[in-house]
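user: Kindly work through both lines:
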Amino acid sequence: MPELVGGALCLDFVNTVDPRHADQRFDYLAGYGALVGWARYAGAIDAAAARRMLHRAERHPAAAGEVLRRAIRLREALYRILASAMKRRAPPQDAFDYLNRELAWANATVRLTRGREGFVLQSDDRRPRLEQVLWPVIRSAVDVLVDGPLDRVRECPGLGNCGWLFVDLSKNASRRWCDMRTCGNRAKVHRYHARIRAKRGR
């Protein structure tokens, strides 16, 4: 599973391809089961919900495949919207429209309830819906776009065309890498070897 370095669920969802801008990239969402597994790993759904979704997917493989296609399209739409926001540009209309369609679908199937823990949003349909796995991601995206900190969203410039997104919560907004242990260390090693080569070339 990919490291959860985004700082928001929707950013970690966007980061399920590695590296984002490479010609050959690894896709962590290779099937509906992988999508559910990622959502469980990221804390978007609980174990019981994951079991229900996987059980329903076994009985409805074509519908599960369609939800996976929607997930991939949502992931790419979110990247394009957030990449535009980082450049202070209007979002691509097709990506924005797609997010709004998914948002409308998600909102049409939930209701506000109150339990011991307080107020929560729950599905208004007791049958497990395959697309429920996407709803926490959609809500996270709305939270980031509406409440931010959108101005702190960054894209990692790591070697190998990383392109992962993260929220920079450092005091002086100076975080550069998605993860210092990976892209940060690779950049250090690259600079070190560049200095060695420069010294040898003198």
Observations:
- The helical segments are 9-14, 32-41, 47-59, 61-86, 93-107, 135-147, 180-200.
- The beta strands are 17-18, 26-27, 110-115, 118-123, 153-155, 165-167.
- The radius of gyration is 19 Å.
